Amino acid sequence: MTTKYTPSVFANVSTESLGCDTRYAPPAPFSQCWYLCLHDPTKARETATSRPDRLSPRSRVQRVPFSHYKHCDYPGKCLGAGSCQPPSNILFMQFAPPTLVATSRHDCVHGYAQNTRRRSLSDPLARVLRPPKDETPEQRERRLADEHEAKKISDSIDQQIRIESAERKKTKADIKVLLLGQSESGKSTTLKQFQLLHNPATFSEERVSWRSVIYLNLVRSVRRILEAIAPEAEADSHDTDSESEAHSVIIVGPPPPDAEQQTTALEKYEYYSSRLQPLEELEERLMRLLSEDDEEEATHLPSGAQHPSWTALTPVRSPTAQRPSIHIDTQAQPSPLSPTLRSPLSRGSELSVRTTSNWKKAFSLNRKLKSTSPGTNELVGWWEDPDDPVHVLAKCSRPMIELWRDQWVQNKLKERRIRLEESSGFYLNEIPRITAKMYFPTNEDVLKARLKTLGVIEHAFALNHGNKKTNWKIYDVGGARNQRQAWAPYFQDVNAIIFLAPISAFDQVLDEDPSVNRLEDSLLLFRSVASNKLLGHVNLILFLNKCDLLKAKLDAGVKLNQYLLTYGDRANDYETVSRYIKQRFLLLYQQSPQNSDRDLYVHYTSVTDTRRTSTIIQNVRDIILRQNLQASHLLV
Ligand SMILES: Nc1nc2c(ncn2[C@@H]2O[C@H](COP(=O)(O)OP(=O)(O)OP(=O)(O)O)[C@@H](O)[C@H]2O)c(=O)[nH]1
Ligand SMILES: [Mg+2]
Q1: Predicted model pTM
Q2: For ligand 1, what atom is nearest to the CA of residue 450?
Q3: Which ligand 1 atom minimizes the distance to the CA of 186?
Q4: Helix segments in 187-323, DSSP class H
Q5: For residue range 595-612, what is the model confidence (pLDDT) as tens digits?
Q6: 265 annotated among ligand-binding-site residues
Q7: What are the residue boundaries of the structural domains of the chain, listed by start?
Q8: If pLDDT is split at 50, 70 and 90, which confidence band does 428 have?
Q9: CATH 3.40.50.300 fits 174-203+452-631, yes or no
Q10: In what ranges is there compositional bias, type Basic and acidic residues (predicted)?
Q11: Spatial distance between the Cα atoms of 120 and 99, rounded to a whole number of angstroms
Q12: Which residue from 78, 179, 532, 578 lies 20 to 30 Å from 155 (Cα-Cα)?
């Protein structure tokens, strides 16, 4: 029987007294050991989290409260010896060589000494563990009692490891799916649809948490309108026309306004901006509320400008990272703002969700909720709180409606080619409902809420089919350019990739790089995913998304051939355009050298449409399941 020792036995022994140095490694047959890094627990933890490849699957940190230790079973090489640099205190806690039979720490040391006498003579651990020569009966009794206690703790740790291992086996994902695509392609919305389909109760429960995001989306849409009608924006639009054209997006600016037009513009602008002034403060407040974070990592808003590479430095999260937090992305393009609406928090920034903390908890209105209604269990009461954002919104409801319905404003938006329906403009049509005091978000509201993803978010669910159960994990990634370096670690053992390409975006440019057309970026991104060697055996499912917006855009008279010269004089209707774009993607796929071992499935989607998307998701699910069964030789 192999004896295992608990770290507590050695916790008060320093490496100095052991004479242990970082070159120390257990002899080859003693290939397994526990070690404890007393000197620099943070470093030990960092190593465990940032270099998981160097740890065995059973590695753990913080299993014992007083410090950190890991388990290593690399034959002949103890991880501890190499991973902590001097003057780290590394303690080897336990040797469990396969040939050694030992019943106590004492025996183990002796057994170790006997088996490897030459090494053990100079072995610092053996020296320390050997009982003193002049041990009194009381000391011996105490030592044995200590050892007995240590063994109990050690056994309980082993038991815990066994339980966790069984648990891990149970929760190990059978199927992993990765959602890829550029920013705003609809990945998070697709993830929400998966949640809605597989965890409707949780989705429903969490709807209330989205209230603040929806409010913020609405307030920002209003701000965008005010920016568009601001007199200086008018001037800017004339100044920047040439620049816009250089970015291959054709923006034909309006003719310069005459004096009368200018007076109207100024009056209109002043009228609306003064009535909507409270929204400025509300926007800042919502941003602050959403960026509150109870986690270790700093996601709070800085007092001044953020470090430009902040988002680029976003750590790659492990695939188990699940809980997102909010932060403000200052990488987004700044937009021209009127002086009255300028604020250090909101200028040019987009609300993002990061995978580090529980943002839903952080800004869920549960904090303010006072009770649940007995019959429905629905949460009630936030409107009784005078600080709740709903009161400012309710106050500004009328001018917001007026602004949105004002034909002059609509014309201005048209002139400036601002299509709010492509972003959070959906809420502008719903102002009376959303600003009502007892507003509770619907499923559709949540699906349309825009929250940019940073890092990777995981959604796990189990699926029963017949008498078999499969565990699924879906990973939603940030699609902006500075987020894409985080994708690769997830390519390793993924079963399928759902790639989203927003085909309505042919006349738009990337937020992060206005010189790049969105459709072009999608095509290039798809090509690089399709030709990635790691993904050679991974089935690709292509969602040609935002078909509803494509239809609306074409119906409004926007011409594809103005942005995609190769389209030539083909018909500018939905059928022809969507088929043409699909062909472009297929061509790229066919050119990829990696296609012998996989398939491509293409769907036209509007992932905000729950009914259609759930059918597509079920279809996709069946395909992936079938492929997975085939791969595990259960079928065919
Ligand atoms: N009308 C319409 N809106 C859509 C569709 N798909 C997504 N959206 C909206 O587009 C916005 C962006 O969608 P997201 O799902 O957040 O995009 P994403 O790919 O996760 O973006 P990042 O997190 O930045 O990578 C959201 O407001 C969605 O509601 C669609 O098919 N039709
Ligand atoms: Mg997202």
Answers
A1: 0.66
A2: 27
A3: 15
A4: 187-198, 200-206, 211-229, 231-239, 241-246, 259-275, 278-291
A5: 778 889 999 999 999 999
A6: no
A7: 7-170, 174-203+452-631, 215-442
A8: very high
A9: yes
A10: 131-154, 235-246
A11: 16
A12: 78
